[in-house]
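cron nightly-structures :: item 1 of 1
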Amino acid sequence: QMRDRYQLNDVRLAQPARAGNAVLLRELGRVGAELLDELVVDGTLVGVSWGKTMYSVSTQLKSKDVSGVEIVQLKGGMSHSDKSTNDIRTIGGFCHAFHAYARTLPLPVIFDSVETKRIVEQDRFIASVLALGRTVDIAVFTVGAVDHDSLALNLGQLSATEKDLLVERAVGDACSRFYRPDGGIALPEVDARTVGISLSDLRRIPTRVLVAGGAHKAEAIDVALRTKLATHLVIDDATAERLLSLDSSDSLGSPDSPPSSTPPSATD
């Protein structure tokens, strides 16, 4: 039913044995790791995001006898706060499982200014990793709900006003690109300072694996799926049932057709 509703290539259901965020994360990670074991073959370029869900996937990957695999970090991950993104540990888990070489972005995901970001992106090494991220065979990512406690809002890179505006306008983020209920960019001035793959470039990746679950992420997941950010989905059964209970006209976000990823006056 989820495949049909969102026109997905594959859906895997995690079934936590009991309630609790830790159990949910562990089960999403286990099922996500199983799917990736099937998808990654010799020579695969794998783009990886970060977050608690992604870290759970990375810790449950099993070693696979493949060669020529490269793991590409899809967005910066350094924090200006005491919050950890676990970006390097996540990349390390993927590299260990697939005997792969890492292409990392040793940068914050959001810069203080557009000018600084543009200068940094002109560096040959940084530019090459960003370009590689746009050409990976598989992108593995999660989506986040947007509230004042969200990890993405508490890395020391956003002003209090920007946080308030994102909570007001955004329903979720994918690769730290905050999106509205119609899938468009929620706050263009923040998006312009963000380092990593854009939503439009993410949609061009051939295989896009979204690993996400929990009732608090239902709207973020619904919008991501309806706007075609994913081809493959790992989700818990309870959240899947919640999404399926919605009438198509009653989606948690708004229109069913994929919107432009940007408002007319902004760049993605």
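cron nightly-structures :: done
Strands lie at 10-14, 45-48, 70-73, 101-103, 138-141, 143-144, 172-174, 177-179, 207-211, 232-236.
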